[in-house]
Specification:
By secondary structure, the chain is of the alpha+beta class. Helix content is 33%, strand content 33%. The chain has helices at residues 3-22, 123-146, 149-169, and strands at residues 25-28, 33-38, 42-43, 52-57, 61-63, 66-69, 74-83, 93-102, 108-110, 115-119, 176-177, 182-186, 191-194.
């Protein structure tokens, strides 16, 4: 092997060894808190399970003095459950977790974290107030107009129907989680990062 090729070969092996020696792997342990904010508002009326939502880290992830991910790094939220509110029954629900983060080395990694969950205002108490109130008013009106049990019962039934219509007319109880809202979720499994 000519001297020139031998020198090049030795140089390549040396550079490879130095690169391998300088690259090290840091493990971010399960239980580590990841702080982030949403970059887009999530509304239960339009959100869908499986939908990704852009986010950004609000604090760096530092392990043993090494910054694994910087504040401001892109992240992504994954919606696992989203239910819109009905008009008469069912409350809005939303559950999501962090799905990925971008590390300081520029690599995006998938993550498993704890979840954020919220349930909206329930219809039951609100609707019961409308329906019962209208039923009582209907019964009193039936009693006043008819003066007997049949008239009272019919009035109560008509009043309850009006109450149901009024409850439905009050609309849905969907909610939004605004862009910029901050969260802290914990890693459920460790992640490995080359630094």
């Amino acid at each position: 092997m000519p001297f020139r090729f031998r020198a090049l070969f030795i140089l390549l092996i040396t550079l490879s060894t130095v690169a391998t020696a300088s690259a090290r792997t840091i493990v971010v342990p399960a239980g580590t808190s990841i702080h982030f904010k949403l970059l887009r508002t999530i509304n239960t009326a339009s959100a869908r399970p499986g939908q990704p939502v852009p986010a950004a880290l609000t604090a760096p992830i530092v392990i043993d003095g090494v910054t694994v991910a910087r504040a401001g790094s892109p992240a992504e939220v994954h919606i696992s459950n989203a239910e819109a509110s009905g008009r008469i029954g069912g409350s809005a629900k939303l559950t999501f977790s962090l799905a990925s983060i971008t590390l300081a080395n520029g690599r995006t990694v998938g993550v498993r974290t704890s979840s954020y969950s919220r349930e909206g205002k329930a219809h039951a108490k609100h609707n019961a107030t409308y329906i019962a109130g209208a039923g009582v008013i209907g019964a009193l009106a039936g009693q006043a107009l008819g003066g007997n049990r049949d008239a009272t019962a019919k009035g109560a039934a008509i009043g309850a129907g009006v109450g149901i219509a009024a409850a439905a007319g009050t609309g849905k109880f969907d909610f939004s989680v605004a862009a910029g809202h901050r969260f802290s979720l914990r890693l459920r499994s460790s992640i490995r990062a080359a630094v």
